[in-house]
Amino acid sequence: MACFAGLVERAGYGLLQTPIIEDAAVFRRGIGAESEVVGKEMYEFADRDGTMLALRPEGTAPVVRAYLQHRPALPFKAWYVAPSFRHERPQAGRYRQHHQVGIEALGPADADLDTEVIALAAEFFAAVGLRRLTLSINSIGDERCRPAYLELLRAELTARRDELCDEHRPRADVNPLRILDCKRAECQQVSESLPHLVDHLCRDCAPHFARVRDGLFALGIDYVLNHRLVRGLDYYTRTTFEFASAAIDAAQNGVGGGGRYDGLVAALGGPPTPGVGFGIGIERVLLACDAEGAFKVAARPLDAFVVDAAGGESARRLTAVLRGAGLAADRAFDGRSMKAQLKAADHSGAALALIVGPEELAAGLVQLKPLRTPGDQHPVPVDEVVAAVRGALAEGAGESR
Ligand code: HAM
């Protein structure tokens, strides 16, 4: 999270958190009622006044809704971390609640912004240590070139209706792009020989896509063209992209994806305003990191564990002093015996134990005991405990080198 925030904030994106619950119309109008996410997977329920609400299935439509409500100046660049809900069949990498980090940029129609957005996703994946990723890109045109292509597709699909999967056979003409997206073998086979949208782009969309590709080339970002990459949300126009991990199960290997959505602001009642962004699935990124052994650092170990057999006040004060000085410190609770506390200190993984018994308390001392490196237990004045711990840690680091 900190890694993502640092990366996108350096590129001018500010944090925007939207509510988990939105008016369901935001998603129906924004994503499309015919889409799988809204039609089959969205959790919808009636509010007390009968208004239909939805648990957020994704982060883009709410950001656009918030933009329209508050009208910040354009360009508007936002990032988010969003628990998202979809009624899917749960399995590894596919959950009914998942979390996305994402960015959305509203205002410019410039293809260089598409490149910036894709590059930021690529940089994030590189920063968390993922190497086995493929970036696929496509252009699905806009309202000028797509209708003619859809007609072409409908004509082809009507002729080949019998070859489609059971779900798409009866409704191939409702949204023919869904055939390209379908994971079933029958539809995949048909779509291999369907015309490619990139070959039918209009004179605005074609140079836009060429500029995105030039930009990726200039930044040294490898990609493959995938003419079937239409993505499951109906708001996309022009550029679409997805990152897939070769390290995790192919059915759920999409670790992040996004694209341009120049009609979404208008679909939610605003003036025509271009937009582009991506969403990255945190759980899938973690699965891919595990599979690639990408985690470089273990959690920070404790520097000191305070063992207080003299009433607990020392533990309260010493942990506060140590933490205030930037050291990692913990303690036992519930007035446990000295023996139990020493055992807890050992289990905690702390480098040192700081032991206070009644005698030490009376003398203003603390016993400092190295737990992981050789060295004798010795008393230090309670007022000098921070310096003593730092000194012992430095000595211990020297010993273990
Ligand atoms: P999406 O591809 O539907 O796009 O979701 C983004 C990412 O969320 C996926 O690539 C995947 O990693 C993760 N994801 C989706 N569903 C699940 C699930 N059920 N379980 C685990 N992970 C999941 C969007 O949602 C768009 N809003 C992205 C976008 C932003 N487009 C433009 N701006």
Write the layout of secondary structure elements.
Elements: H1 2-9, E1 14-15, E2 21-23, H2 24-31, H3 36-41, E3 44-46, E4 52-55, H4 60-70, E5 76-85, E6 97-106, H5 111-127, E7 133-139, H6 146-159, H7 177-181, H8 185-192, H9 205-218, E8 224-225, E9 237-245, E10 254-260, H10 264-267, E11 275-281, H11 282-292, E12 304-308, H12 313-324, E13 329-331, H13 338-348, E14 352-356, H14 358-363, E15 365-370, E16 378-381, H15 385-400
Parallel strand pairs: 1-5, 7-8, 12-13, 12-14
Antiparallel strand pairs: 2-4, 3-4, 5-6, 6-11, 7-9, 9-10, 10-11, 14-15, 15-16
Helix pairs in contact: 1-5, 5-9
Bound molecules: histidyl-adenosine monophosphate (HAM).
CATH class label of the largest domain: Alpha Beta
Mean pLDDT: 95
Distance between the termini: 32 Å
Total helices: the number is 15
Largest sheet: 8 strands, mixed
Summarize the structure in words.
The chain is an alpha+beta fold. It has 3 domains: 2-144 and 201-292, 2-Layer Sandwich (BirA Bifunctional Protein, domain 2); 146-186, no CATH class; 304-400, Anticodon-binding domain (Rossmann fold). 38% of the residues lie in helices and 22% in strands. The chain has helices at residues 2-9, 24-31, 36-41, 60-70, 111-127, 146-159, 177-181, 185-192, 205-218, 264-267, 282-292, 313-324, 338-348, 358-363, 385-400, and strands spanning 14-15, 21-23, 44-46, 52-55, 76-85, 97-106, 133-139, 224-225, 237-245, 254-260, 275-281, 304-308, 329-331, 352-356, 365-370, 378-381. The strands form 3 sheets. It has an 8-stranded mixed β-sheet with strand order 1-5-6-11-10-9-7-8, sandwiched between helices. Strands 13-12-14-15-16 form a 5-stranded mixed β-sheet, with helices on both faces. Helix 12 links the parallel strand 12 (304-308) and strand 13 (329-331). The two termini are 32 Å apart. Bound molecules: histidyl-adenosine monophosphate (HAM).
